[in-house]
């Protein structure tokens, strides 16, 4: 059986399989059904990884904003402590 080699071809084969079914697509494309299932599994895993990376990037941005706010609060408190320490002398 001929095998698709490129990512583009495997993506097109998966789209075709979604339309007509895995068994029919495998016959039409001269592929093993298992190859289509493997490609589909790999594609789903990659999408899951991409979604996780996006979630992590969003969380990192949130934490950076929160850290910046805490740094500002700390600077204000340090100035206030210095001010009151001088007033007590």
UniProtKB/TrEMBL annotation:
The keyword Nucleotide-binding does not apply. GO terms for biological process: DNA transposition. Keywords: Plasmid. GO terms for molecular function: DNA binding; transposase activity. The keyword Cytoplasm does not apply. InterPro entries: Homeodomain-like_sf (IPR009057), Transposase_8 (IPR002514). Pfam families: HTH_Tnp_1. This is Transposase. It comes from Escherichia coli. The lineage of its organism: Bacteria, Pseudomonadati, Pseudomonadota, Gammaproteobacteria, Enterobacterales.
